[in-house]
Amino acid sequence: MTTTTDPLETFTQLPLHLDPTSKSLSSPLPNLTAPLTSLTTLQRSLLSIPSQTPPAPAAINPKRSAQISKMRDQGNLSLRKTPPSQHPTEAIQLYTYGIEMALTRPAWEPSQLVREEAGLLYGNRAQAYMGAQMWAEGAADAEASVECKRQGNGKAWWRRGKCLMEMGRWKEAQLWVAEGLEAEGEKEGGKEREELVGLGREIERFLAEEKRREGR
């Protein structure tokens, strides 16, 4: 029979006793008295520390929800009132405030709610950036909106595709639009899907013309 002295392979049962009242450990072995006393002291000190974790609330904070909706509505109003020749600074700032409030919700509130609120606001801010011809910023926000909500979000798919086109990234735009159409599905999106299809055709025409010119 093979024996081993590896402590990881050896189990030694020690005579321990747990007092049901004080919950302290003790042992008749003298060499365990000091370690068990230290362990009991540590346990009691940890139990004496008040908990810093707040209890989960019964419902979502309605004030924060109302503020986020207010920032989005005010941003939409500001964007509509801003002339095309002016930078939509106010709308972008309002959307940014709303995004920050959505992303800083307490951890115990539903993550799906955060994704829905942030997804809408990222999409709105992408549109504002597009109005200012800030294509890189618009593309980033539209992608963030899609990450929050992939399906039923045709506007965000279209917006990033359009931004990529404006930056001259036609191949990337083509792949993005194809991915968006696949995510939206044949029966989803309605008008938004039609716009995405139209954008895809515009990209295909450009790439076909570019290929024809190169073949001359």
What do you see in this structure?
- The chain has 216 residues and is mainly alpha-helical.
- The protein is 63% helix and 2% strand.
- The chain is built from 8 helices and 2 strands.
- The chain has helices at residues 33-47, 62-81, 89-103, 111-131, 135-148, 154-166, 170-184, 191-214, and strands at residues 17-18, 25-26.
- The protein has a two-stranded antiparallel sheet with strand order 1-2.
- Strand 1 and strand 2 form a beta hairpin.
- Helix 4 runs parallel beside helix 6 (154-166), helix 6 (154-166) packs antiparallel against helix 7 and helix 6 runs parallel beside helix 8.
- The longest helix is centred in the C-terminal third of the chain and has 24 residues, at 191-214.
- The chain starts with 16 loop residues before the first strand and ends with a helix.
Q: What is the rounded Rg?
A: 30 Å
Shape: elongated
Count of individual helical segments? 8
Structural class: mainly alpha
User: How would you write the strand order of the largest sheet?
Assistant: 1-2
Q: Hey, roughly how much beta strand do the residues contain? A: under 5%
Task: Characterize the main sheet.
Answer: 2 strands, antiparallel
Number of strands: 2
Low-pLDDT runs of 5+ residues are none
Elements, N to C (H/E): EEHHHHHHHH
Distance between the termini: 85 Å
- Percent of residues in helices comes to 55-70%
Q: Mean of residue pLDDT?
A: 88
